[in-house]
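Re: duplicated header lines in exported structure tokens

Our pipeline writes sequence and tokens for each protein into one text file. With two proteins the header for the second block appears twice in some exports. Here is an export where it did not happen, for reference. First protein block:
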Amino acid sequence: MSIVFSKPQKFTATVANIQQLNAITVKADFDLVEPKEINFVPGQFISLSVGNGLFRSYSICSDHKEKNKMSIVLTVAHNGAGSNYVKTLKQGDQVVFVGPSGRFTLAESLSSELLFMVTGTGIAPVISMLKKLIDTKSPAKICLYFGLKTDTNIFFADFLAECKRKLVYFNYVICVSNPTTAWKGPVGRITDFYKIYNVNAVQAYICGNPNMCTDVMKLLKDRGVSDDRIFHEKFTVSVNSN
């Protein structure tokens, strides 16, 4: 069955919760007001109105079955328009966004091996994808490599542990490039640790820092993974403003 994408439309919503996931990352939960339901495909994003006619795009990280609510994750460690706007939000505030948009989704026909390579908030759309894979009781061999600058910035670890319990062949590796002395896990970039078991079967899903996406795509192609098996979403790198 072909994927059906809903036409993007304008939504109003209220802030249900703002959760600080770590010192630099926030999860924002919204209750929809009008329209009251959203139909999105795991992996899609919305464009949030952040004032002065500006919009910023954020991947949806909630469950696609929860049609009357929606969640996003973003970094608030800089002074960008989106970051500054979200830092002002509190429970009950009204927001406006347009969506759902984007074609970074699970393939219509899933392979027996799924490779996810993400950095930072690039894990957000993959959270929705993993929830879908749990729903469908996917029998695929699924490997997730999650890269972060420091172990103090780790988030969604509990959900990844839940995936390991609920998905038969799921494994994940959190890689830290600048760890504290307390970190006992892998040190380096995700490209230092990833494994492919079957080059001819793997489907790769890449999301996060654009430089990482470019590097990973080249590595995969050099290893013989065909273009039609590589799916990616390059996040925009925010520039600090004074």
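Second protein block, exported in the same file:
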Amino acid sequence: MRRTMGTLLTVAAAALSVGCTDYLSEGIAPAAPTNLFYQLEPSGDPLNPSGLLLKWDADQSGSVAAYNVYSRGSTSDPFGLRGTTTSASFHDAGLPHLEYYVTAEGSGGLESDPSATVLIDERLRLPASTSLTSTSLNQAIHLRWNDNPYQFDPAGFWHYRVYSTTYDLDNNLCGTSWSLEGTTVAPAFLVGALANGRPRCFAVSAVSIEGFESLWSPLRYDTPRPDARAQVVFTTISDPTKSGFRFFLDANNDGQVGPLELGLIGAGSSPVMDFSLAAGAGGALMLTPARNNTDLRAWSAGTITDLTDMDIAPVGTYARTALAAQPGHGYVFRMIETDGFYRYGGVRIVATGPDYIIFDWSYQTDPGNPELLRGIK
């Protein structure tokens, strides 16, 4: 309750009969709380935070028995008691009101003047990031986005929130049940512990220091896939037993990709190998399609700096023609597996020797999915 002159006169009169000590402890209201501030709790929906946390400086005199929190939903409404707490903080669940203030209540029931009022000002919300790109990795996806929310207000920026859900590749639809993958202050995030061959949809929001969550970035889908580095195969002449490579061989014929069924090196003459390495004219080393359901094409005319420079597997222009394995160049293989669907594999030649090549490779286990590495969708 607020202090009034009548209340003070009544307490003063009582103090005359019981002594000065009671007057000091019960007749003077505590000081008003100071440094009141708030922080919203993001929910994923910028317009509906999950709650609000109020904090203020705790009283050090020992004269405060409780704090009273008042709020109102609009500037035309009167303030009403929202709740009472004995700590210097208050959690308000659900959609917050527009304005809040706090008073301190002494052991004798007298209430302080109100603290400064805080306004839950949505104008402090940061803009959404304008882009989101990704790199497919082995059991992981690396995300990057435009850092424009931080650049808009560096002093008001808190962090980014990264969300994901399932993705229906056939119908080009993201799922409706989103999960929080994590938070970061950098415009990049590695999403790990993912299942290879399972498409995921991603989004990013920016959160201000007050807890206001921005609208989401553009949605982005990507699919993790197996890969490996520094594999070696030899020419069919120098070592026939190690001259062939198979991206995926379903040895158990169960449609599932096991760790011992990926990246298999064997005889180049075997009809189950995807390609073999042959010695061509003038010392050239030739990537040669082996089994009937495999063909290939060059990724580009020039070199690439890393396996992750390759993106969505191109459509068309595949052939069963052998291509020269050139250091720094990328190659895409298209294969029909036993289930009748295309699968795609990528190869980057790291180095060549007189009768061998060293290469990095990736393989997309999801049927018909052309995502080898990083793609702009």
